[in-house]
Design a protein that fits this description.
seven-stranded mixed beta sheet, globular, alpha/beta, six-stranded parallel beta sheet, Quinone Oxidoreductase, Chain A, domain 1, Rossmann fold, 9 helices
Length: about 300
């Protein structure tokens, strides 16, 4: 099969397009013919070796954890899916080697859900990692409730835009930090935008004089450090970007594959409550360019890889 792979840590220049062996199919997995995948910052961080202290790499590595495709074959013990079913998945193992930037991937059923109807494979591929990150941070860590107010840092990005929509669907008010060029976009999602940078705490306090009930940090650094200043008494803090959140009394969130959570997200998509914005689509052989686009850090929405 055709796939993207790399044989050592490095830059996007290390990515190679070529033949790789077909994945082996375990009894509780399905073989998915990949139609689309998506690029996430974690992909190029793994490529750069930044996650090596936490994740073993078995080279050559096929990158990618997001997938949207069609079941080609079901494992011996699988009754949940059958050949021809359209699925999405966050296909992360406890090591990196067999990813989704390929024509086929063997995906454990615990990582999958049925693809939401009425959306493209590229849109669907942008949902799993980013959507699960937002969903689990809001519901498992921050435990947001209807009527509360949450501040989302970097609200116009892939995770942030989905967090805004998920929170709004649950009756939560959202203040989102973004550059001014993305303010109208955030308003269209139902958030109140605020410009990041110096004086952010004061601007948030103007919008929420009593403080916000929760902060979801997707940036780390200065954005995280100022967050306690805008929390109401008893407010909660979570970050996906900076482990220093634990020193501030908050939760560090690392997304987990979860079929039930993924199904909840697909239901929100089908109900029209959330939409995945696709900023760009690259063919599989141009994955290095997609990585460079993501590294640039100014993408609104998701970067998709079209495989077939």
């Amino acid at each position: 099969m055709k796939a993207i792979s790399y044989s050592a840590y490095g830059s996007p220049d290390a990515l190679e397009y070529g033949e790789r062996p077909m994945p082996k199919l375990g009894p509780d997995s399905v073989l998915v013919k990949v139609r689309a995948a998506s690029v996430n910052p974690v992909d190029w961080k793994v490529l750069g070796g930044y996650l090596d202290p936490a994740l073993d790499a078995v080279f050559p590595v096929v990158p990618g954890w997001d997938v949207a495709g069609v079941v080609e074959q079901a494992g011996a013990s699988v009754s949940e899916f059958a050949p021809g079913d359209e699925v999405i998945g966050y296909v992360r193992e406890d090591f990196v080697s067999r990813g989704t930037f390929a024509e086929y991937v063997a995906a454990p059923i615990r990582t999958l859900a049925r693809k939401p109807a009425g959306v493209s494979f590229e849109e669907a591929a942008g949902l799993p990692l980013a959507g699960l990150t937002a969903y689990q941070a809001l519901n498992r860590s921050l435990k947001v409730q209807p009527g509360e107010t949450v501040l989302v840092h970097a609200a116009a990005g892939g995770v942030g835009s989905l967090a805004v929509q998920i929170a709004r669907a649950q009756g939560v008010k959202v203040i989102g930090t973004a550059s001014e060029r993305n303010h109208e976009y955030l308003r269209s999602l139902g958030a109140t935008p605020v410009t990041y940078g110096d004086g952010l705490a004061e601007r948030v306090r103007e919008l929420a004089p009593e403080g916000v009930d929760a902060v979801l940090d997707l940036v780390g650094g200065d954005a995280l450090q100022m967050s306690p200043e805008v929390l109401a008494k008893g407010g909660r803090l979570a970050s996906i970007a900076d482990g220093a959140v634990k020193e501030l009394g908050g939760d560090y969130v690392f997304v987990r594959p979860d079929s039930a959570d993924l199904t909840a997200l697909t239901e929100l998509v089908e109900a029209g409550e959330i939409k995945v914005e696709v900023a760009a689509v690259y063919p599989l052989q141009k994955a290095a360019d997609a990585f460079r686009d993501s590294i640039g850090g100014h993408t609104r929405g998701k970067i998709a890889i079209r495989v077939a």
